[in-house]
């Protein structure tokens, strides 16, 4: 996995969507802050994961 310099939705999703679909759909929980772009990233890349808001 790469280290990203920003949290832009398009940048982060472009990296995460390179993960195998099966692995992304097996992810059960995602910890995120309340920023709207983090919700969009989670919804796009890990649609079956439960959100844990930090």
How would you write the strand order of the largest sheet?
1-2
Radius of gyration: 11 Å
Strand content: 5-15%
Give me the secondary-structure category.
alpha+beta
Order of helices and strands: HHEHE
Measured between the Cα atoms of the first and last residue, the distance is: 22 Å
| DSSP summary: helix tally | 3
Helix content: 40-55%
Roughly what is the average pLDDT, rounded to an integer? Answer: 90
**Poorly predicted parts:** none
The tally of strands reads 2
State the gist of this model.
The protein has 54 residues and is an alpha+beta fold. Helix content is 44%, strand content 15%. Strands 1-2 form a two-stranded parallel ribbon.
Write the topology of this structure.
Blueprint: H1 9-16, H2 21-26, E1 29-32, H3 36-45, E2 50-53
Helix pairs in contact: 1-3
Describe the structure.
The chain has 54 residues and is of the alpha+beta class. It is 44% helix and 15% strand. The chain has helices spanning 9-16, 21-26, 36-45, and strands at residues 29-32, 50-53. The radius of gyration is 11 Å and the shape is globular. The mean pLDDT is 90.
């Amino acid at each position: 996995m790469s280290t990203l310099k920003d949290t832009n939705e398009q940048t982060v999703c472009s990296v995460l969507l390179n993960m195998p679909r099966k692995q992304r759909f097996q992810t059960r929980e995602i910890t995120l802050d309340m920023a709207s772009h983090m919700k969009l990233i989670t919804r796009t890349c890990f649609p079956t994961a439960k959100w844990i808001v930090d």
